[in-house]
DNA sequence: TGACCACAGATTGTTAACAATTAACATTAA
DNA sequence: TTAATGTTAATTGTTAACAATCTGTGGTCA
């Protein structure tokens, strides 16, 4: 049940690559996305490209006007950020509660792999990559709950506060601190204390 | 600014018609949606059909498996409802705060028009229509803030708890009570007391 | 009988061509 | 010059054909 979907459609693969490019900032805010360009870049036809763009539009990553194509949307104003962040925190804590007592070593492997990549990005001061892995890590916290509904709502929020991630990263004198701040989450999960884990998440996000 | 999009793509039109069919029950839960059937029914090719199905899948109205097509969502009102309802309440209260001191008579006209339609639906015991106007009313509370981001996040949530609306309505012995429960919100807004309005919203959504 | 496999029909995934719309630019007239 | 207009290129919307995948049926063999 709930097969992990071994083979994925082209559209889904492209969604992930485009989302990474945009959330990390490699594709700038306001930039225009042309279907034929993307089709050439990913060596597919426009069908899967349109599929990917529609998905990103619903997530709020890009904005589309009929017959005018898609623009990378500009991040939400800060006042909404203040609303969204606690909501996002609530969702992540809720997700963790769902699977907390079913954790396996595979789960930790996934998270530690992401954090390892984040560490490398920190060491090379690649802030785009840091943001990408930061978001990927938190996304994986939600994904683990295997609830498409939860993930959809979380995505709709996070894509709108992605600038908050990047800007919060810039505050650190030494980027490696960004990596280090994620370690307590994994440690708390390993220790097996639910309340401590939730508290760690809350401290981390705020 | 913010043109109402005069001409809409085939995909969008089909989304609306399919969503109505599903929410009203004309297409039953669990029923399978075949692309060619829908294409014939709407006299278009499979392209716009796939577009519509993808959108409904994101909204949570249908579920799709790769290479297996789409089913009308039957997933019970998961425990996620308990998470989403307070989040939704938070968003609506936040929205109201944004425009509370800029209300005009036009705003009340919009709301009272919706409630009037809801009243008629209550009088004819048309629960599908009651739900439709109930959701429309709350959506208009959010729309008034003129924040596409806020509306998108709210929509992502509400489309996933729409069944909660229907089922909560069924609890009433006399449907007119559903209508009457919305009146205090408008009254509080008219009275001009922000804190009282927010409290009313909270009590209403509970 | 029951498990296994092959095959055919049905269904979705992908592609490329065609149609409709938009945007940019040159042309013309006031 | 500037505004209005016609023309052309670029871009998105739609369609239909082709490829890949799944599902069910029937047969074979132990």
Largest interface: A-B, 29 and 29 residues
Distinct helical segment count of chain A: 11
CATH superfamily of the largest domain in chain A: GntR ligand-binding domain-like
Strand order of the largest sheet of chain A: 1-3-2
Shape-level CATH architecture of the largest domain in chain A: Up-down Bundle
Shape of chain A: globular
Task: Round the Cα radius of gyration of chain A to an integer and report it.
Answer: 17 Å
Description:
- The structure is a homodimer of 206-residue chains.
- By secondary structure, chain A is mostly helical.
- Chain A is built from 11 helices and 3 strands; from the N terminus they run αβααββαααααααα.
- In chain A, β2 (62-65) and β3 form a beta hairpin.
- In chain A, α1 packs across α6 (127-143).
- Chain A starts with 9 loop residues before the first helix and ends with a helix.
- The interface between A and B is medium-sized, with 29 and 29 residues.
- Chain A binds a DNA duplex (30 and 30 nucleotides) through residues 7, 9-11, 34-36, 44-48, 50, 66-69.
Main features:
206 residues; Arc Repressor Mutant, subunit A; Four Helix Bundle (Hemerythrin (Met), subunit A); 3-stranded antiparallel β-sheet; 5% strand; globular; disordered N terminus; DNA-binding
């Amino acid at each position: 049940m709930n097969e992990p979907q071994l083979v994925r459609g082209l559209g889904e693969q492209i969604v992930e690559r485009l989302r990474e490019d945009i959330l990390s900032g490699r594709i700038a805010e306001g930039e225009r996305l042309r279907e034929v360009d993307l089709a050439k870049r990913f060596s597919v036809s426009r069908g899967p490209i349109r599929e990917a763009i529609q998905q990103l539009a619903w997530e709020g990553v890009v904005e589309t006007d009929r017959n005018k194509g898609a623009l990378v949307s500009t991040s939400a104003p800060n006042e909404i950020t203040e609303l969204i962040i606690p909501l996002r925190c609530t969702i992540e804590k809720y997700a963790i509660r769902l699977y907390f007592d079913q954790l396996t070593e595979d789960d930790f492997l996934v998270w530690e792999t992401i954090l390892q990549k984040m560490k490398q990005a920190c060491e090379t001061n690649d802030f785009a990559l840091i943001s990408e892995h930061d978001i990927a890590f938190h996304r994986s916290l939600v994904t683990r709950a295997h609830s498409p509904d939860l993930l959809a709502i979380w995505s709709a929020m996070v894509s709108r506060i992605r600038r908050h991630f990047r800007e919060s990263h810039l505050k650190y004198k030494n980027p490696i601190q960004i990596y280090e701040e994620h370690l307590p989450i994994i440690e708390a999960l390993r220790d097996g204390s639910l309340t401590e884990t939730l508290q760690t998440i809350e401290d981390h996000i705020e």
